Amino acid sequence: MDLFTGKRILTVTQFTNLVSGILEENFDHVWIEGEVSNLSTPTSGHIYFTLKDANAQVRAVIFRASARILKFKITDGMQLIARGRVSVFAPRGEYQLITEYVEPKGIGALQLSFLQLKERLHKEGLFSEARKKPVPRLPQRVGIVTSPTGAAIHDILHVLDRRFSNIHLLLNPVRVQGEGAAAEIASAIRDFNRYGKVDVIIVGRGGGSIEDLWAFNEEVVARAIAESKIPLISAVGHEVDITISDLAADLRAPTPSAAAELVIATKAELSEKLTTQLFRLNRVINLILRESRGEVLALCKGLRDPSSLIDTLYQKNDYLLERLNASITKQTDLRGQKLALLLGRLSAVNPQKLVFTYGALVQSLYLRQGRAATNLMERFKKSVMMKSTALDNLSPLATLARGYSMAFRISDGRLIRDSSQITSGDHIGVQFAHGKAQCIVEQTTSD
Question: Where is each OB-fold nucleic acid binding domain found (predicted)?
Answer without folding.
Answer: 10-102
